Amino acid sequence: MKKKIAVISLGCPKNWVDTELMVGLLKATGEVELVSSLEAADVILVNTCGFITPAKEESIDEILNAIEAKKQSPDKKVVVAGCLYQRYKEELKRELPEVDAFIGVNELLRSVERILNRKAAVRKPYLYREVLTPPHLAYLKIAEGCSNACTYCAIPIIRGPLKSRPVNEVVEEAKRLAERGVKELYVIAQDTTAYRRDFGEEKALIKLLEQLEKVEGIEWIRLMYTYPSHITDNLIDYMASSEKLVKYIDVPLQHINDKVLASMGRKYTRASAEKLLEKLRLRVPGIAIRTTFIVGFPTEGEAEFEELHTFIKEFKFDWAGFFKYSREEGTAAYRLGDLPEELKDSRLNLLEETQFWIYEELHRSLVGKRLKLIVDSPSSDMPGFVEARSYRNAYEIDGIVYLKGNHTPGKIVEAKVTGLASNVDLTAEPL
């Protein structure tokens, strides 16, 4: 009889890929099946995030939920994997004796051994990934770790320095994904623009993108997690001319004030960031730019915050995420202290409110425009519509487009924007 496994995957898409790899290796044995209920599961696998405090708290809550389910059925196993364990190995083993097994971020290939008590006899494990996103889209992780040394970031502590994958391996994985019906690829890493820099290769990302464009079946390629000072003129030109690399870029700026950027260990200034943004908009017409900002960094005074606020109002990003600074032990910024939570909360709320009105203004300007949309799923919110996205919308990160009619998931439809469903979501009808 097959073992029933329930999987909880927390954190970023990079962690999601790790979950898919473990699930794929387990299913390749022919001895397991996935279930959605903790109660029905023989094994509960929790892949945790340990990046910042709220993520750590969520991970602990999910582990405790799994342990609670185990109390009702003592034969049930609880397995904890991922970043939280990698960061706090001894503490978790000591505090959570109910957990049956732990898997670190560098031990994913041992998931079969830890869960099924047998060796995983596979070559090229990345070809066994079980895509847990909608079948027409998938994340493609091209590197592990990071060497940028931002002072606030725990990723190098958890996952180590940059370790890029070989181009041929990444392309082989992309081909396998395309064979399984994937049409949209999300190229991800902690810093995708650092790809192969650990081998002294400066133009490897473009070479990789050129190879990915040749993969039959892949129609959209989306570039995520780019680092501002690693975005070259060559990459911008490539994006402008590419047929499959969509006119969308995720470029986390984190702040705009020079003093704060320097104390964050970011290797650029306001002037260079503005020059980059200007080039992107000038040379890639219609580009959608997503960014993120950290609010309440210890060196952010009122003047620095107001500079950031004014910049956001003036630049009008297509998408922006805002996060409160989380003081993390082991990072260089830990010694800088912290600002009061109430102050961080008020600054966060102000930026989010400002961006709310920017969204509405930007999306009203899209009404009447023609866009190609990729269909994700039928809509539970709007009967008679499906949920879709244009090149401007990354899956589960940005807003969606409600497309009128019944359309097959994965289909790309030419449509006309008819209105706003909210300040971030649009409505459209097929042409």
From TrEMBL:
Top-level taxon in the UniProt lineage: Bacteria
Binding annotation for [4Fe-4S] cluster 1: C12, C49, C83
Any one cellular-component term (Gene Ontology): cytosol
Database matches in Gene3D superfamilies: Methylthiotransferase, N-terminal domain (3.40.50.12160), Nucleic acid-binding proteins (2.40.50.140), tm_1862 like domain (3.80.30.20)
Reactions the enzyme catalyzes: L-aspartate(89)-[ribosomal protein uS12]-hydrogen + (sulfur carrier)-SH + AH2 + 2 S-adenosyl-L-methionine = 3-methylsulfanyl-L-aspartate(89)-[ribosomal protein uS12]-hydrogen + (sulfur carrier)-H + 5'-deoxyadenosine + L-methionine + A + S-adenosyl-L-homocysteine + 2 H(+)
Residues annotated as domain TRAM: 364-431
Domain MTTase N-terminal, residue spans: 3-121
Keywords carried by this UniProt record: 4Fe-4S, Cytoplasm, Iron, Iron-sulfur, Metal-binding, S-adenosyl-L-methionine, Transferase
Listed cofactors: [4Fe-4S] cluster
Residues covered by the Radical SAM core domain: 132-361
The UniProt record lists the keyword S-adenosyl-L-methionine: yes
Cofactor binding description: Binds 2 [4Fe-4S] clusters. One cluster is coordinated with 3 cysteines and an exchangeable S-adenosyl-L-methionine.
GO biological-process terms attached to the record: tRNA modification
Compartments where found: Cytoplasm
Signal peptide (residue range): none
Function: Catalyzes the methylthiolation of an aspartic acid residue of ribosomal protein uS12.
Family: Belongs to the methylthiotransferase family. RimO subfamily.
Protein name per Swiss-Prot or TrEMBL: Ribosomal protein uS12 methylthiotransferase RimO
Source species of the chain: Thermovibrio ammonificans (strain DSM 15698 / JCM 12110 / HB-1)
Gene: rimO
